[in-house]
Amino acid sequence: MQRQRSAAWPRHPAARFLSLTVPGFFAGGPVLSKNGGKPNITPPMAKSDYVPNNDDQFAAQLQNFKTNLGGYAATLGVSAAQLTAQAADADSFTYVLASQEIMQNGAQQW
Fold it and tell me: Which of the two residues, 2 and 93, has the higher pLDDT score?
């Protein structure tokens, strides 16, 4: 069974090859599949994000990362300068978040 091509069929030979041989790959438009003729337009997305939306939770995640990254630095190929920069970033974010809370509490007293 040959797949149906979209109107915007890719012009590059490699994209045409991948569109015909790799399941789920499409370049230039949806490729119809065997799932009832429905187009495979987007891959499945993650159910949740690894980065929290709440600033307090994000600060806690940065501090946890700062605390535990040192043990894995050699394995991951992270240099001492990168460790220092990440630690400074985590501390800076925590400081800015604490300063924001102080300012908001002070503004309520006016």
Answer: 93
